[in-house]
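Blinded run. Sample ID left blank on purpose so nobody reads anything into the name before looking at the predicted structure. Input follows.
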Amino acid sequence: MTTTAPRRATTGSRARIRDRGQVDAMVLAALADGPLRHDEIADVLRRRVGDALDLPLSRIVPTLHRLARNRLVSRPSRDPRRYHLTETGTRSLAARVRAADAFATSLHHLADTDGEGST
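Blinded prediction complete.
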């Protein structure tokens, strides 16, 4: 019996985000400063996160459509190519940031290298 190595979630040194909730949060965060087109969202993510993130336009566009269906973002009729956060989207982003902070804090405590957080 042969085994295969698990698929890596990276492309070179860039991390590929596979979790839909994480992709949603990244797109919502990119829109926090104001309305953007899908290509501008990709630019904001690259500028803020750098090349460590692999989130291509092919993932951003369907994410925006899903977020719009869930009323977390909207497109005004005067410029339908730009997306902006709704009030619900702003609250959702704040909740996601709090959850991510709590997770990161817990993970740091568990992985504490001084020996108190590990078994």
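Unblinding after everyone has recorded impressions. Residues 1-11 have pLDDT under 50 and may be disordered.
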